[in-house]
Structure formats: structure tokens, C-alpha cells
Design a protein that fits this description.
By secondary structure, this protein is an alpha+beta fold. It has 9 helices and 15 strands. The strands form 3 sheets. Strands 1, 2, 3, 4, 5, 6 and 7 form a 7-stranded antiparallel sheet that branches. Strands 9-8-12-11-10 form a 5-stranded antiparallel sheet, with helices on both faces. A 3-stranded antiparallel sheet has the order 13-14-15. Helix 1 packs across helix 2, helix 2 runs antiparallel to helix 3 and helix 7 packs antiparallel against helix 8. It comes from Desulfofundulus luciae.
Length: 329
Amino acid sequence: MLLEDEHGRQYPAHILVLNTTEFGLETEAPVPGRYVIRLQENLWVEVAGVPFKGKNNVHVFDILCVHRKQGTARRLSREEYQLLAGSAGELIQEISRHLPEHLQDLVREKLLAEVEKSELINALRVGKVMKYEGGRFRYLSGQADLDLPMEEAEKLMRQAIRQAEHRREVIISADGQKVFDLHGVPFDHRSGGLLAFDITEVIEKERKMHQQEMQAYREAIAAVTGGRLYLVNSGEMEKVISEGTELARGEVRQTHDIPEARRAMREALPVLDSRRQHAIALCLTEALANALKHAGGGCWQARQSGDTVRIIVQDRGPGIKTSELARAT
């Protein structure tokens, strides 16, 4: 097909996926932009490219208006969708032609909806659609070489069929290299459909974005506090906790545990003047009161490494949301 802009320039386009309100096209036509697609002599469609970065010249075009001989509409009709769906639409027409007349439209609509979903999944190239019946899977569409954990998939389908409701699980492959999003949909008491998506790249991208976000927060918070406050990850924290020699430790579960912690700390500290001892005891008191208030308690320890004493307070409170870190700091 051709996309034609307001100046009459034409751009070849190939339909990859479609529904009644939008096209997924492979084309070199500039996006965003408004175009006309002439499907037949008395049928043409106005579309607008969605302004986001496509891949390999693949873009989404929203349908703005469908012009027909008998009038206009905001979306394609079922018959027009069949025209564009090609052989799938023709097959559905043939299948439904032998049904009782009062059922034909209903069956065609349901089958076309399934074809539309299937073609969308095929276009994604990260999914697989299978039918489960009598303890066996049959491949229907999507990425044929997607190596699924079939034991887990079968367990999911049995649960969905037994409970007669949609079931979903995120499964990690045995080698830890792949992450799959599995959806089990029951059809009846012995069969159902499985939709499986390889979301490994999505998870990895989210992980990298989170790392970048946390690194930005770390640098910003360290800068605005003059190096007095750092965010660390669990690996870095394990190293901090294990450094040096333990001098004292304790737990705080009740308010009266705090004075006991101060006493144990004073006894464990090297000889210091009273002013510095008081300052350290005050810091410990504040940290333990915070753990008690927000986490119901926690534990503490003092460790010495060379001429440095580090006091560590740990709790399992809810923490501070990333979005609230700046304000909290």
C-alpha cells in the first residue's frame, strides 16, 4: 500500500499488524505526520503517525477517519478488517459460511478477534501461543523456537483449568538466563490456552535503568550532604558490616532497651573524653529510637578497624521510597 501526504508525496508501506483503530506499518514515511491510505476506489483512510521512535522503520499509525461511499467513521468495519487481514479473513468467511445464519456474524466476530490477537503476538516476536488439552500442548502461533519451561507451563495450565480462572506466573529458566511471563486461560474442564512471553530483555532493561537511577541518587545525595550520607547496595553493605573486630552488640525491642545499649557502648569504647562519649551515645540513641519507631526495633553493633570505630544499626522497616529520597535528605 501507499501513504500519501498533503503534498501528494507517496511512501510505500507494508502492513505488519492491524486492528480496527490503528496500523502497524513498516515505512520510511516521516513520523509524526498525517497521511491518506487508499484501500479501494470508494474506501480510503486518514491516519496519523504516533510520535515515538520506531525500530527498523516500524511505526504505529492511528486511524483518524475512514471514508466510505456511504459516509465516514472513526474505525474500520469488520468487513474492512477482513479485507486487510487477507487470507485469514477469507478463511473465516469460508468457515462461518456453513454455520446457521443466526450464528454466522457472532462466530465471525469472535474468530476475527482471535486472529487479531494472534497477529499482534506474531508481530511482537517475543511470544508463543499454545493450546493445552488432555495433558498435551499444541503450538498455534508466535515464536516457534521459544524454549519454555514446559513442566512449569503444564502446572500453570492444570491450575487454571482446575480453578476455572486465568492464572499468571513469571518463571525463570533452569539456567537462570531467561525470564518468561506465562498466562493460562481455561476454555473448559479439560482444555485451555497458554500465552508465553520472553521478557528477559525487558527485565534486564528495567534493571539497568534502576541501576542508573540509583547511581544518580547516590551522587546527588553524597554531593548535597557534603559526603555525610551515602546510599549503598546490599553487597557494599555486607562488606561494611564484616570489616574490623566486633566490640559490642545488642538488640532493641522496647524503649527501655536503649539506655542498656548506651551503657554497653560506653563500656566497649576505647578511652575517650566525656564530650566525645556523649556525642556517640546521642547518635546511637537517635538511630535506635528511629529503628524502634519505624521498624518495631532492630539490632546494633560496634566494630573497630584500626583506629576507627564504626557503629552499625540495622532494622527491617519499610525504608524510604526512591521518589521521596530527595525530600527526606
